[in-house]
Amino acid sequence: MGEILVLIFTLAVLIVPFLSLVMEVIVLWAAIVSIYPVRVIYDWGNHFPRIKKIIDWLLKYCFIIELILYLLCFGIEAIYMDLVHDVVWLAGWETQLINRQIHQPINTEYISGVIIVMVIFFAGMIFLNCTNANNIPPLLLAISFSALYLGSIYSVIWTIHILKIFSNVLDLYLLLLPINTILISLRIIVLKSYEYSTDPSRSSKIEESAILNKLSFIKNKALYLPFIGLLLVIPLIGVISLILCVLGQAPDAAIKAFTETSDFTLSTKISPQNLTVDEHYLCTVAAGGDRKIVKPIRKGIRHGHEVIVNRQLQIANAFEDVLMDYTPRAHKVIRHIYDTYGFPIAKLIKKKWVADLVYFIMKPLEIIFLFVLYMTCVHPEDRIAMQYTGKKVQDIL
């Protein structure tokens, strides 16, 4: 029952970005059919009041829903990268990881640059959704558009950055965030461009000037505001750089957050080679926990590759040696039971905190193993110390 609930919860979480995508497509369609020249499609809504009400409701209230779904997309994408690709979000590029683990895709030293870009994007999105375009000065309206452009560009850069970990069809899931960002921006820009209009009482001067009249014509075609917004992306980047300088960050912190990493497309750093940890055995996995808890002693050799060795692992392996020496039949039975149930459990241990938990769970057994070693071995510490060195005690006597 518990596994079924976990599966249902996982599927529900993974479906959220798809719901967001479907909603954005529907709302963008509603925005397009509600304006000229596609107005003729929308006019048949007069004959179908319910459909017209649904479209109007979507355009008016969808913002709150899409904001919640969009924020959930961020967290869900992070969870997906953690579970599927073993991304360790708190591990800097200089940290040595184990097995298939991947370093953080964003350097947290420059996280302020990322935060500022996203705050500007959300500010522009919220401002435009909550304000009538006719109550916004033209330049401020264009700057707000540029905030949407910047957020869309940044989401695309982010996706290009993590493209390196794409390894199967399921990773197309990671494309949902930039697609949602672009659809949201496009819908807001389309609606606000159409919503913005010249005040008829102030149009006389425009009509008297050929140049202004031409500009007015372009504006009425809803083309110039989005175009100016695109041009203002560069000055907006300058504003972001200025804010970063005031905060004590380099002006290019928003980019260094990507480049000062390893393992990803835009990364420029080379991390230490990952250490191999045998995932088949509980004690071996537990040795990869937090250093302050599991207290690793050294590196050792197991099945031809390096592993992290701590005293608990040494004691467990020394105890197995004793079983093989004194009770080979019992050892075979115990090994079969352990291989049957220990392997599946060990494969679930991918996080340090889980490895720490296993270390504590194994502690009582460690004490029992140690007691047996001191009851059966003349030099128990010699046997313990020689574990995972590739040698036997007899080799150095």
Number of strands: 2
Look at the helices and sheets and give the structural class: mainly alpha
Oligomer: single chain
What is the 3D form?
elongated
For the termini, the CA-CA separation is: 56 Å
The level of helicity is 55-70%
Average of the residue pLDDT scores: 75
Alpha carbon gyration radius: 31 Å
Spans of at least 5 consecutive residues with low confidence: 36-42, 202-206
Give the helix tally: 18
Strand content: under 5%
**Main beta-sheet strand count, sense and barrel state:** 2 strands, antiparallel
User: How are the strands ordered across the major sheet?
Assistant: 1-2
Instruction: List the secondary-structure elements in sequence, H or E.
Output: HHHHHHHHHHHHHEEHHHHH
Q: Can you describe what's shown?
A:
The protein is mainly alpha-helical. It contains 18 helices and two strands. The protein has helices at 2-33, 39-43, 49-85, 111-130, 138-162, 176-195, 204-208, 210-220, 224-231, 233-246, 253-259, 282-286, 291-294, 311-326, 328-347, 352-361, 363-376, 380-385, and strands at 296-302, 305-310. The protein has a two-stranded antiparallel ribbon with strand order 1-2. Strand 1 (296-302) and strand 2 (305-310) form a beta hairpin. Helix 1 packs across helix 3 and helix 5 runs antiparallel to helix 6 (176-195). The protein is elongated and about 95 Å long.
